[in-house]
Amino acid sequence: MRHLLRSRRAFTLVAVAATCGAARAQTVFSIEYRGPTIAVPNSCTLVPITEGDLLTPGTPGGVPALGPLPAPCVFITGGPGGLALPMWGGCVGHPPGMPCGVEVDAVSFGTDGPLLPAMPAGRIAFSVDRFAAGIGGLPVPPAVWTEGPPISEAAGDVFVDLGLPAGPIPPAPIALIGHTGMIDGNGMAGPSAFAYPGVGIVEPLPPGCLLPDLGDNLDALDVDGPLGSAVAFISLDAAFVDPLCGMPYSGSAIANGFLPGMILAKPAAGPLGIYAVPPMLGLDLIAGPGSDDLDALAMLENGVAGFQPSPGPYAGWGGPTDMVLFSVRRGSAVIGAPDSIFGAPIEPGDILIPPVAGGVSPFPGILFSAESLGLVTARTMGVPFGDELDALDVIRKVRFDCNGNGIEDAVDIAMGAADCNKNGIPDKCECAAPTTYCTGKVNSNGCTPTIAFIGPSSISVGCALAGNVAKITVTSLSPKPIAASHLGQLFYSTTGPAAFPFSGAFLCVKGPIRRIAPIVGTGGTVGSTTLCDSSITQDFNARIASGIDPALIAGAAVWVQGWARDTPAAGAVQLSNALTFTICP
Fold it and tell me: Which of 96, 360, 498, 539 is most enclosed, with most CB atoms within 10 A?
C-alpha cells in the first residue's frame, strides 16, 4: 500500500471532463476510429465521442451492466481539460472510419497490480482485435475462440485469466488453463448465447478491412479505473500499415508530435509529456523511430519522477523500480525478433516487459507468452499472423464479486458455479437458496421425514430449459411393511405457505396444490419396523421445463412438501416438512 500512497502524492488525476461518478473505480476504455460509436453523443454531456477520449460505461457509477445500454460517457476528454491532444478539436464529430490523428491506443493510471510471481486467478485482463481466433477447445466459454470469427464479438470484450503459472512463461505449447469472458461490448447475448456486463459499444465486429466498421474495437483498458488520484499514462497510434489489411493505422502519435512506442504521461497540471522512450522498452531498435507501436499497457508507478526500469521480472516493482507491462501491435518491426528472456520470436499476443539486464537480446522480454493466455501465434501454430493482444490490465481489486469470496464472478462461473441463464452472474447470487420451514409428521417407525434440495444445479428457468437437474428429496421415510415399496411424491403451491392440521400433522403449502408426476416408489428395507431408509427424489427443473404449470416462471416463489404412504400410521400417510425457494432466471 505504501507505494500507492507515494504515487498519489506525486500526481493528481487528469481533470475529468465528463463523468458518471469519478470517485468510484470505474472501468475506463477507448475505442478505435473505425467503429460506429465514433461521433455518437456521449451519455453524460452529449459531446460526440472521439477515439482520443477515455470512456466509461454510461451506467450509474460507470460500472459495466447488462444491456441494452446507453452510449458510453467521456471519462477523460482527449481535448482541453483532459489529455489536451492538439488535434482533438478538429476531430469532434468526424465520421467513423476516417482517421483523425487522436486515437489513444493504451491506458493505465499507474496503479495496476502489483503483479506478483503467483497471482490469484482472474487478475490479468485483456482484449484482442477483430482478427483474433484464440486457441480452440479451452475448457470454458465464453473465450476468444468462441467469441471470435464467425461470431465476431471478441474485439469488444474483455477476457480474464483462469490462473496463470508464475511468469516468465515461455512461448511453447503448454497445458493451458485458459481464460473466460469478463466484460462484454454491449452487455447482451449474441449468437453464442452468452451475456455478461457490458460497456455500451456496438457488436459484432467482423474481421474485414472495409471502412467504417460495423462494430467497435475496445482499444485501451483499465478494468478497475483510478482509485483516488493518479496520472494518466497513455500511448498513441502508429502510422505504418496493417499487414493484414494493407491500410495505414491512424497515425495519432506522429500527428501530436510523439512516437507510437512511447509511454506518455498527463498530470493534471502541465502538458502531455514523455514518460518512457521506445529504446528503454526495447523498441525502435530494428528499423528506427516510429517502427514499433506499443499497443497495450499495465503499470505500477513507484512515485519517483520519471521511469525507473526494472532489471527483470518482479524486481523492485512498485518500490525502487516501475512495473511496465505492454504488448506491440501487428506490423511492428520487433515482431519476430528474439526476446531478451528466452530468445524466442516476439508475437503481438505476448505480454512483454522492458529488456532484462544481461538478457539474450536488447529487445523486450516475454513475461507471459500469447499461448499461455490462450492466443494463437505464428511461432508455434503455423499461421501467417498471430492473435493481437489489444488492451491489458492487472486488476488490483476484484471488480465483480456478487458473493464476496474474493474471486471474479466470471472465474467462479468458469470454475463450475452455475450460470444457467448465461448472464455472467452466478445463479446463487440472483435468488436466495432454498430454505425449510414447517414440521414433518413422525411416521410409524418413529422418524420424521425431512425435505432438502440436493442440486447441484439451481432451480431456475435457464437451468431447466438446458436440461439440468434440480433434485428435491425427502428422506427418513418408513418402508412398506410387506411386499413392494410405498408410493410417494412431492406437491407444491405458488400461492404461499400454510400450517393446516392434516392427517395427524400439518399441510404446509397453501392451495391450490399441484402434484409432481409421476408417483415414485420409496424403496428401503421392506418389512422393517425400525429402519427409516426409504426416500423419494424428484426433479423440479423438469417440472419447470415441461411447461405444464404456467405459474413456474422466473421470480415465482414456490412452497414444496413431500408425502408418502405409511400403512400403519394415522391416515396411512407420512409427511415431510416443507421447502421454499424463488425460481431463478
Answer: 96
Contact 119, 378 (CB under 8 A): no
pLDDT at 175: 63
Question: 554 vs 421, 456, 583, CA distance in Å?
Answer: 11, 19, 5
DSSP 265-331: EE-SSS--EEEE-GGGGT-SSSS-TTS--EEEEEEE--SSSS----SSTTTTBTTTB-EEEEEE-TT
Cell digits for 105?
491506443
Give ∠ CA 201-370-351 in degrees, rounded to 5. Answer: 80
Q: How far apart are CA 501 and CA 478, in angstroms?
A: 21
Q: Which of 314-318, 549-553, 581-585 has the lowest mean pLDDT?
A: 581-585
pTM of this structure: 0.85
In order, the DSSP letters of 165-220 are PSSPB-SS------EEEEEBSSSS--TT-----B-S------S---SS-SS--EEE
Question: Shortest CA distance to 581 belongs to which of 543, 534, 533, 535?
Answer: 543
Contact 356, 344 (CB under 8 A): no
Residues 514, 549: contact at Cβ < 8 Å?
A: yes
Residue that the C-alpha cell 421392506 belongs to: 526
Helix (H, G, I), strand (E, B) or coil at 410: helix
The C-alpha cell of 120 is what?
490469484
What digits encode the pLDDT tens for the residues 119-133?
999 999 999 999 999
CA distance 277 to 354: 11
Q: 355-361: which pairs have CB atoms within 8 A and are 24 or more residues apart? A: 355/281, 355/282, 356/311, 356/312, 356/313, 357/311, 357/312, 361/337
